[in-house]
Design a protein that fits this description.
five-stranded antiparallel sheet, alpha+beta, 41% helix
Amino acid sequence: MSTLSPVNAPLSVSDRGEFIFPSGNATHQDARKNDTVYLLQAIRQLSTVLDQTNRIVLTTIHRQRMVESQKQIASRRLNEFRSLATGWNDGSGEPVSDIMIDRADAIVGQWIESGILRPRLYPTPNGGILAEWRIDSWMISAEFFADSNVLEIVGVNVLTRERQDLDVDCSGADIGSRRVVDYFNTLRR
């Protein structure tokens, strides 16, 4: 009883995304065995392709779920500010307006979708919202002011005392996300 040597049967894909199975190798004596070996190799290759595709899909789904989870956590925190009344900060402190909360929610949500970590969020005594991050040796804060579409972002390196400032006009369609992502990437270098 002879053993069959593996058949090199590369699996290829057409321009339309269809799998192409090349014709069998005529070097084997038994065409049926040749077809079986070829088919097994094609199935193995197809299994590898499907496994890699499945990993990509699962990674994408996991990332989408993580982004949605982080956005929900930020939204819940911001919604807590709706209950703040005048004097919430030991007798002083303006309430945060619903418009401010909704605006901050949209901006923070877009940042999270852009890959920026979810910030810690706090109300400010002047009716604004403060977002803070700690990334490596950088402490970063962004303040949303009640009467302005400009967002002030300040990063301070706690080791070197270097300071990086960025003012972002959040009135545009992208809410300044590209500039903010670039800013965060600059601090990570």
